[in-house]
Amino acid sequence: MSRIAYVNGRYVAQRDACVNVEDRGYQFGDGIYEVVHLYDGRFVDADLHLARLERSVREIRLDLPMPLASLRLVLTEVARRNRVTEGLLYMQVGRGVARRDHAFPKVPVPVSLVVTARRIPPYPSSLDGWSMTAITQPDHRWTRRDIKSVNLLPNVLARQAAREAGAGEAILYDPATRMVSEGAATSFWIVDAAGTIRIPPLGESILPGCTRAALLAEMKAHGLQAEERPFSLDELADAREAFITSATSFVKPVLAVDGRRVGEGVPGPVTRRLFDIFTRHVKGGPRNSAA
After folding, report:
1. Contact at 8 Å (CB) between 71 and 64?
2. What is the pLDDT at residue 12?
């Protein structure tokens, strides 16, 4: 069966889907995207993702092409037409098609919207057998990293460097201060030498991860604390545990960074507990919604 995409008001075979050569998302990266995990026919943390989408388009002075309730219906229909019950829903909102000029179009044009779906492997049952490693890379992204923009070239180059090094993620850091920011496509956490769970605080230099927010809420409900406090490469080197979170990574342990083992080089007890907590959330938590 051909995959189906939603493109500017029409459901079309993905092989036939296309955008105009003067689409501003294509030419300038003038757009926003979101990715939502679909588990057992339910959207995971859809409210958080759609709220972040709404915030991001507002930050670049762009209007959503439809109300959020209507967008939910489009997501549901794309999933249904692709017969996907466990997978990823990708949505991209752009400023539309206009003659190439860096400034916004003088005459407003229709906002573009593309939604696609794809299957992913089943949600992992445990952390056993995972062997993910990471490398560190200087953070060369633009300064408004809190906006989920389609401008991802620095992220692409960092992820490619990780792949060439045989690693699964690139952990980005400020080359001037040596303070860690996040992964190229994930939020990055450590359990520091004192046993404290830490993650860099939100701000314009950090994407407000939806999985991060959901996990922090679940931790609070379970009486666990995390400090949203910066940490350096040196503190990372001394960490007992490290892990990443995202809509596609869930809670995934990082066992080595730059070839140096993190802690004992195996998934630690804190990461295991957080994985179990988040797994219960994915499989029916209050922030999940029916597709």
Report:
1. yes
2. 96
45-55, pLDDT tens digit by residue? 999 999 999 99
Measure the CA–CA gap between 191 and 169, rounded to whole angstroms. Answer: 18
The pLDDT of residue 128: 87
Q: Considering just the CA atoms, what is the radius of gyration of the chain in Å?
A: 19
CATH number at residue 197: 3.20.10.10
For 83, list phi and psi in degrees, rounded to 5.
Answer: 55, 40
148 part of the active site: yes
Do 162 and 259 reside in the same domain of the chain? yes
- Residue of 106, 148, 220, 283 marked active site: 148
Helix (H, G, I), strand (E, B) or coil at 134: strand
Determine the average pLDDT of the residues in 169-175.
98
Q: Are residues 185 and 63 in the same domain?
A: no
Q: Note whether 268 and 138 are same-domain residues.
A: yes
Summarised one tens digit per residue, pLDDT across range 119-156 is: 999 888 888 888 899 999 999 999 999 999 999 999 99
76 lies in the same domain as 140: no
